[in-house]
Amino acid sequence: MAIILDGNKTSSDIRIEIAEKVKVIKSQGGKIPHLAAILVGNDGASETYVSNKVKDCEQVGFVSTLKRFDGSVSEAELLAEVQKINADPDIDGLIVQLPVPKHISVDKVTDMIKPEKDVDGFHPVNVGRMAKSLPAYISATPYGILQLIERYKIETAGKHCVVIGRSDIVGSPMSMLLSRKAYPGNCTVTLCHSRTKDIKAMTLQADIIIAALGIPGFLTGDMVRDGAVVIDVGISRVEDPSKKSGFRSKVTLILMK
Known about the structure:
Elements: E1 3-4, H1 7-27, E2 34-40, H2 44-60, E3 63-69, H3 75-86, E4 93-96, H4 106-112, H5 124-131, H6 140-151, E5 160-164, H7 171-179, E6 188-192, H8 199-203, E7 208-211, E8 229-232, E9 236-239, E10 247-250, E11 255-256
Parallel strand pairs: 2-3, 2-4, 5-6, 5-7, 7-8
Antiparallel strand pairs: 1-11, 8-11, 9-10
């Protein structure tokens, strides 16, 4: 029988836990966490992501600041805003929503953010510290996967985990986190990507499969052995005439078989 790993419930539980911690901070006269987000342009998905982050901050009691820029903003202007937020002692964390327009270097923007304010976990310092199993900010999706595994008490030690996708944001960090000497971790990890031959042969050996690519229907039932844990974090837009936009977001079930 399949057991659904309920990501919505897990995120709700975490928000409640954070809100309680913030209440304690307030009662003790401490500083309330302050998150700043920078949004460039009017990408629909980015608008949704940032709106959700602002709502989450409100729910848990954080202070939030949203900085909006037109898609024509220069790289120099955007970097100057990042530097301004870096220097603001009242702001604890900074997110620059990706993607940014093509004329702006993602690497330059990421490298400009102070590592201690880089709550997205994209700065090379945080990536390096994560790789060495040192305290660091971890990008949201890999951290969310760790939370699911831990909260559903999924055994990982000695298990074979297959990660499909090698992006810097999800696949690559996930492979490092699950092979670290900790829980969740201590897995033997196989990282599959577009050049991997016979991915099905790999996934059929897996105790845990993490699909981190935006191709709907890529991982099919005949690629998963009985008893395997499957976590799909790939989000795709698929046609849906019933929706006003003509599309809907598709996320395959997250389950433990």
